[in-house]
């Protein structure tokens, strides 16, 4: 199983992902491909993401049963601890928080 989630991705990338994967929600793509195809798809995400961010998770033979990679700016970053890949959060300072609020207000204004 392969899952890719993109945020703030250009329409051309979203269309390209829709060629290979099923878009089950806005920006959430699922499929089942080999390692080679998965790497080719991720290469397309890297080339076309621009200012957005993305995460790709897939089934594999690890303790948790999956692995993942991320790309772009995000408060969540992969961290490995004792052989397990976990997610840590970058602390949010007052500037980051105010920018996030302004961004969410701008999104809500588009009626």
In short, what is this structure?
This protein is 36% helix and 35% strand. It contains three helices and seven strands, in the order βαββαββββα.
Characteristics:
35% strand; 3 helices; five-stranded antiparallel β-sheet; alpha+beta; two-stranded antiparallel ribbon; Alpha-Beta Plaits; globular; single chain; 111 residues
Task: Explain what this protein looks like in three dimensions.
It is a single chain. By secondary structure, this protein is α+β, with helices and mostly antiparallel strands. The protein has one domain (2-109): Alpha-Beta Plaits (2-Layer Sandwich). Helices cover 36% and strands 35% of the residues. The strands form 2 sheets. Strands 2-3-1-4-5 form a 5-stranded antiparallel beta sheet, covered by helices on one side. β4 and β5 (66-71) form a beta hairpin. It is globular and about 35 Å long. The N and C termini lie far apart (37 Å).
Query: Helical element count?
Result: 3
From the 3D coordinates, which CATH architecture would you assign? 2-Layer Sandwich
Mean pLDDT, nearest integer? Answer: 83
- Output the CATH class name: Alpha Beta
- The shape is globular
How are the strands of the largest sheet arranged?
A: 2-3-1-4-5
Reading the helices and strands in chain order gives EHEEHEEEEH
Number of DSSP strand runs: 7
Low-confidence stretches: 100-111
**N- to C-terminal distance:** 37 Å
Let me know the largest β-sheet. 5 strands, antiparallel
CATH fold annotation: Alpha-Beta Plaits
The overall number of domains is: 1
Q: Classify the beta-strand content into a percent band.
A: 35-45%
Radius of gyration: 16 Å
Structural class: alpha+beta
Into which percent range does the helicity of residues fall?
25-40%
């Amino acid at each position: 199983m392969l899952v890719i989630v993109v945020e703030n991705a250009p329409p051309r990338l979203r269309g390209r992902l829709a060629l290979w994967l099923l878009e089950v929600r806005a920006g959430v793509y699922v499929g089942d491909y080999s390692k080679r195809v998965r790497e080719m798809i991720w290469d397309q995400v890297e080339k076309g993401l621009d200012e957005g961010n993305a995460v790709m998770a897939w089934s594999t033979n690890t303790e948790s049963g999956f692995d993942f990679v991320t790309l772009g700016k995000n408060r969540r970053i992969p961290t490995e601890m004792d052989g397990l890949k976990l997610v840590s959060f970058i602390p949010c300072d007052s500037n980051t928080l105010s920018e996030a609020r302004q961004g969410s207000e701008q999104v809500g204004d588009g009626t």
